[in-house]
Write a structure and sequence with these properties.
56% helix; alpha+beta; Rhopdopsin 7-helix transmembrane proteins; 3 domains; rod-shaped; Beta-Lactamase; Alpha-Beta Plaits
Length: 533
């Protein structure tokens, strides 16, 4: 008799456990699969409760009263179980509205058949009970054809669900392996005990073992939920990820035949999967024959390619990686194509913008260091360049010379002929200096009618001869303005810096003093600041 009390205790303890699990899952219904899991455990709880009530019945009639609602919990549990497993293993896309409706219509239709069984006996032909201690024992049962049809349907669903769980556990991380083990362990006891009960495999057994099997199921799933966080860490389906990828993915086998492809790749190739799967790589990529040949035998590749797609050239980031088996042997390749057309267009636009900005910066800089009238360098650029040139000359042991010049009687030209004539004189002198200097020399409009030439790597004596040539050239070149000839001369001062010599300020001052001396000495001449040996 003691075992009968233990039997009842296990059943009703399982009722409490499974009901509590259902409540917990409902409280966490925002997590993937939790609502279906809650429905499944609530159905198990209902089946266990009605099974316990059958066993506690005081008469055969009372037992038969509890038998009918017991089947509803069982059939509903199967519907919730298969949909939960499908969603949990990442195949939720299979659960279309139609399939979902069909799966959950089965418990309703089954229960209608059971409730009307007395009219047709398609589900149960007969069932006999008798009192056995404190429990109501089952003496005999005869099942109808719909019972066996429903039994086969139920076992096929359970086996299919177990297959999905095992397949998921093989392809997932270790934490999902542990979850899968306890899910399978939870399913096996009720599966095994229900087979024993349905086929009467233990002769003389008057009390069903299935309630004990479902009790073990509740304990196993409770352990999986708490110890292995079954409702907290739900696997992300590989298929779901690949199907939703915006990148085109093509999988090739060892013979370069296409064995898998995602929707993005189908859209890229503009072919149906039936026209792609099993076909050679070169055939599928025939519109891009040259590209196909280029990458046909490559195991690894990463590059940017341009392909003509939908009437326009598009840029793709191409990556080819090997697929390896458990022995680390290469047995295929995966090709991933990411459309980077927009990114490249943005990069090109940015590059063009940067080029434009750089060009504008250069133009602005040129405008900032150029004299607008003569297009010669201005005094601002002289301050920037003279120190650098003198430092370089000192480092290399080269001399530097400066020639400073001033147009003689320039005010008279302006007063006599006007400022436009004065501007003509200045531009003519600028042209002479530009034509008669080297590309390494720097010509400046120093201010007003004053000009300056910086001659790197030039000895003051050589600078003196250059200055004399420039002076004579200006003197010989008369200009016509308003029907009149204008002839001008200039006074020139030359100063130099030998290695280890003066500062920029010193040499500028020296050249200015030499030019002033040329003015004092009658103008139209060249004076050197001092003798340089």
């Amino acid at each position: 008799m003691v075992w009968q009390y233990i039997y009842l205790f296990v059943i009703f303890a399982a009722v409490i456990i499974t009901f509590w699990i259902a409540v917990y899952a409902w409280q966490h219904r925002n997590r993937t699969g939790s609502l279906l899991f809650a429905g499944m455990m609530l159905s198990v709880s209902e089946w266990l409760f009605t099974s316990g009530m059958v066993s506690m019945s005081r008469s055969p009639e009372q037992a038969r009263f509890w038998v009918d609602p017991r089947y509803f919990g069982l059939t509903a549990m199967l519907a919730f179980f298969i949909t939960f497993v499908v969603q949990y293993t990442g195949h939720g896309k299979w659960l279309t509205r139609l399939r979902f409706a069909i799966i959950f219509a089965v418990p309703i239709v089954t229960q209608i058949i059971i409730e009307t069984n007395s009219l047709h006996h398609w589900f149960l032909v007969s069932v006999d009970f008798s009192q056995d201690g404190i429990l109501m024992g089952l003496d005999a049962v005869r099942y109808g054809p719909l019972f066996w049809l429903h039994t086969v349907y139920s076992y096929l669903l359970v086996l299919f669900a177990i297959g999905l769980i095992v397949r998921m556990s093989i392809r997932r991380f270790s934490i999902y392996h542990e979850q899968a083990v306890f899910m399978v362990l939870g399913v096996l006891p009720p599966l095994a005990t229900s087979v024993i009960d349905a086929f009467l495999l233990i002769p003389g057994l008057k009390h069903p073992l299935a309630p004990l099997g479902f009790a073990l199921m509740g304990i196993s799933l409770a352990y999986a939920m708490y110890q292995h966080r079954m409702l907290d860490i739900v696997p992300v389906a590989r298929d779901l990820v690949i199907e939703s990828m915006s990148d085109a993915m093509i999988v090739l086998d060892s013979r370069a035949n296409v064995v898998d492809i995602n929707p993005s790749a189908q859209q890229f190739l503009r072919l149906d999967s039936s026209e792609i799967i099993g076909k050679p790589f070169t055939q599928v990529f025939s519109p891009w024959n040259e590209l196909a040949k280029q990458y046909q035998g490559k195991i690894f590749a990463q590059s940017e390619i341009v392909a003509h797609v939908a009437g326009q050239d598009r840029c793709f980031d191409l990556r080819i990686s090997p697929l390896r088996d458990h022995r680390k042997q290469s047995n295929g390749r995966v090709i991933v194509l990411r459309d980077i057309t927009l990114r490249k267009q943005t990069e090109n636009q940015l590059h063009d913008t940067l080029v434009t900005v750089k060009t504008l910066q250069e133009q602005l800089y040129e405008q900032a260091i150029r004299d607008p009238l003569t297009n010669l360098y201005n005094r601002r650029f002289l301050d920037e360049i003279i120190g650098r040139e003198m430092e370089r000359a000192s480092r290399l042991g080269h001399p530097v010379s400066i020639v400073m010049m001033d147009v003689d009687s320039f005010k008279v030209v302006n007063d006599t002929f006007g400022h436009e004539a004065g501007d003509l004189v200045l531009t003519r002198l600028a042209a002479i200096l530009t034509e008669c200097t080297r590309t390494s020399d720097y010509v400046f409009r120093y201010g007003g009618e004053e000009f300056l030439v910086l001659l790197p790597a030039t000895h003051p004596q050589d600078a003196y001869r250059c200055a004399e040539r420039w002076r004579l050239t200006l003197q010989k070149n008369s200009m016509s303005y308003a029907g009149q000839k204008i002839s001008v001369t200039m006074s020139v001062g030359v100063a130099g810096v030998l290695p280890g010599g003066e500062t920029p300020e010193d040499v500028l001052s020296a050249a200015d003093n030499a030019m002033y001396r040329a003015k004092v000495n009658g103008r139209n001449c060249v004076e050197m600041f001092r003798s340089y040996s």
